[in-house]
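Exercise 7.
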Amino acid sequence: MNNPIKNQVQILQKMGIDQLNPMQIEAIDAIDKSKEVLILSPTGTGKTLAFLLPLIERLNPSLAETQLLILVPARELAIQIEQVVRDMGTGYKVNAVYGGRSGSKEKIELTHAPTILVGTPGRVADHIRRDRITLHGIKNLVIDEFDKSLEIGFEKEMKEIVSALHSLDRKILTSATHKEEVPGFLEFNNPITLDYLGTASKILDLSWVHSSKNTLDTLLNLLESLGDKRGIIFCNFKDTLDGVSQFLDENQVEHTCFFGGMEQVDRERSLIQFRNSSQRTLLATDLAARGIDIPGLDYIVHYEMPPREEEFTHRNGRTARMNADGTAICIKGKNDKIPDYARGIKKKEIEEGAKIPKNKWKTIFVSGGRRDKISKGDIAGLFIKKGDLEGSELGVIELKTDCAFVAVSSIKADALCHKLNNERLKKKKVRIHKI
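Solution. The predicted structure, written as tokens, is:
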């Protein structure tokens, strides 16, 4: 490995971050000082960077083995953290392993041990049983959203993994809730605990919209009043979500969906389109309530109220993040009962809105990625020079191992695909199409 970037200032400059927030500063100091750190902080406050920055400084570039293991409860979080590590530009090899993708493909990736391994407990434990992960070099363990992993039944796998790690020097746990105590098998004896759960300075405008007739019509009116803002509509069940999605389609409201029964590739693409604003509306179950980072939300809508206050809190935490104001709206059907935890919320009337504007961006798929030595600059160059795009017509580029996703002006998307399909990027002829 050639001179990996470990300097925190350089990493932040590369990521375009001017300064860290108080939680991140205190977390970095705590991880430097203590072998056991518990970080309690709301979703969206930058916990990933808070533990990555000090731990990357502790990695040894001369060792060709895994040194940092990060366990996460969900596939999307594994993918997200893998991408953050890549965006940091440290030069260290990182891989994510998780259910829903080919185990044989992961076997090949693990043949050359990544310095940083991110994964769900079930898949990591499976690879350990198959002797695909070198364990003796792992001195740093992070269990991100540890309470969520316990909640969804990963305790057995986490216990198995931790018991197999005999060289641990540092253990970092994070959570966005006070709910769970640290389990005994983690042997957290004298940790430094950072509690930022009650200190987030954010303004959440929370209100009820009462529907006198049809909640779907109320939802449509609400979306019209919100205009071109970005947000998530939460449903409790997939069947409800399917019905809402069909209704939105019939009324030509552009949206994308996110729920547990979707194929992994479809879930990933939904989040990509939502992040790059080629879809402004995400229709989701509570799978999207936590564990994934979706910045810049203007609102969330509770189309159905969740059965427990905890889910209500996590949903609301999707907006009004990092000191930005946000809006959470609860829709009450004519015969719906208001849960005890939601009593006292003010009622609001829907303001008259115009027809919902079409999305300004479309997402283009490119069949080449990092493995083909293709960079974001290469893609931007192709789209601007040969695709005749203006800089303002090129949006977010997400570069993956074997492909890329590019947000472009929706007006230019069709012509761009026709013009650039089968063009060469570096030495590879790439397929280009809309998703």
